[in-house]
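Notes continue from the previous slide.

Worked example: a multi-chain complex. Inputs as given:
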Amino acid sequence: MKFLDILGSASSNMLRSKVRTILTITAIFIGAFTITLTVGISSGVSSYIDKQLGNIGAENVLLIRPKVDLDTGSGPKKYDPEHTVNSAAQARSGNVTLTSKDIEKIKTQDGIKDVQPIIAAVPDYIQNGSGDKYQISTQSFIDGSRFDLASGKLPDNSAIQPEVLLPVSFVSPLGFSSNESAVGQTVTFAIKTSLGKQEMVSAKISGVQQQSLLSDAGGASANKKLISELTAIQTRGLPADTANKYPAASAQLASGISDSQLQMIKDGLKSKGYQALTVADQIGIIKQVIDAITYVLIFFGAIALLAASFGIINTLYMSVQERTKEIGLMKAMGMSRSKVFLLFSVEAILLGFWGSGIGALAAIGAGQLVNKIASAGFLKDLPGFSLTEFPILSIASIMLLIMTIAFLAGTLPARRAAKQDPIDALRYE
Amino acid sequence: MAKAIIGTEHLNKTYGKKDSLFIALKDINLDIKQGESIAIIGKSGSGKSTLMHLLALLDSPTSGEITVNGESSSRLSRRQKDKLRNKQFGFVFQQFFLNANNSVLDNVILPLKIAGKSRRERNRLGMKALEDVELADKANNKANDLSGGQKQRVVIARALINDPNIIFADEPTGNLDSVTGQKIEEMLFSLNKTKNITLIIVTHDADLAARCDRQIRIKDGQIEQETK
């Protein structure tokens, strides 16, 4: 018997008892739907997070902050001028900063190529021509960072002109008709000196950046020229040791660093009194939560599939029972055991195929619906984020897995059919 | 004298063990020649169906030999036996064993489907076999919609489709009224004459048995009488 004929026979056998087949397929459908949707959400979220990884900083970049001792349980700490760890009290007052001395100290850590302070400036407002004024914060753009660009380019730190990467939320308030039309335009920042005198700095918009889950809302990234002009104004008249304070620093790691080396660098910085986080560390917690939810849902899906595989076994046993005579006839006519086995196995695989196929399609449909609702609702502020994503490879492997489970479930009844004695079947007592 | 197509030598078949030992067949020696028609007769439980199953290679003897085309069946693998049945044997059953929901044509071509013939070849030979039994016009009907006589003709068409050397018929007229039974009988014997197909018929029907070249009467698992 040719394989195509077996496939055809198995298909028509499957449709012989429609209600039973539909019920079995429904059971597989539930499992396939749950697992596909879960995988869809998990891959949607992780691909978003991966994009965000670039948004926060490059992969071989450490974000370094002064270590904050949040241990307040053991009572007041004695003052120690040599002790570099900042207290919780200082942290709360926003007083925890890095100085140029810290930057030098960080540079001495092995494995670190370059350290750049992250410089923040707080202009009074941003304005396009004579339009409305909006509050904004700015910080220095670190080379190597990747942003989810909606339009344009990243700011160029070597440019002699001030440039800024604008969050997408500022585009229409500033009076630009689209992301594209904003790129290349000039906006004005107003910033006060320490004596309260307001000065203006103009900058070209190099690009527009998607809002992200993890980046500060309302923050613009400025190139070296812009940030130095802004900080120059902001710190004018301040004593040097107050002026050169940075909330954090960004350290470029030497390339080709292994995980254990990275840990050594982190530990080294920790002993020096700094807290160093990779981008992965920063979003690790979010990912862990998502992963945990994914595992739980997949577990439920797997239980549904386990139940469904008993359904397959039952359906096929009944089918073998009902078709005893037919099987006997085919064997009498020379159909080999292996072909009979194949006939029933293919039927099981077909049940798996239809159940998982329809389940996957329904999950994709539901995923699109969820995307639509979510992006109009609670994900409105996170453009570029689709809650569910269905890579063809994952779908295919889920279907393949379910078809394998169906096949395994089908082997029991198929074996019984294959071993059936044609004489028993053809006896007419 | 034609060559023996199928034969047995000291054929024994027993079921069970020791105390519950049941002897179904005892020392059966037969020689059936190409083109012969043989009736195996006997009461129910006499062992005549067991003998047919053994001859058709659906069952294995406890001891003794079955030779098909001069070759000992005990030397054949299961796969070779499957192939032999598929290519050289045709089966006609009292209870038809048609797939009720399939079309007449689909039922007829089942042996070719098992053999792995192409669809075109299958349908061509299927239609030819249906013409032989005068049912070509019913090819696309469901098997269930046919009368008993028509069903048995479909079964004959199915048995004929692989151009067999031997047709095994188990009570072929048992479920039919005498007129249709007669027609089926005619059909089988005309195949026997025109195509030189060997007929091995298990039957209760004395008239049908009498038309055969030889009658082998089985009683308590032994050949009681052989008449020509």
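Summary box: Helices of chain B lie at 48-55, 78-88, 104-108, 110-115, 119-132, 148-160, 178-194, 206-211. The domain at 35-47+78-227 of chain B is CATH 3.40.50.300 (Rossmann fold).
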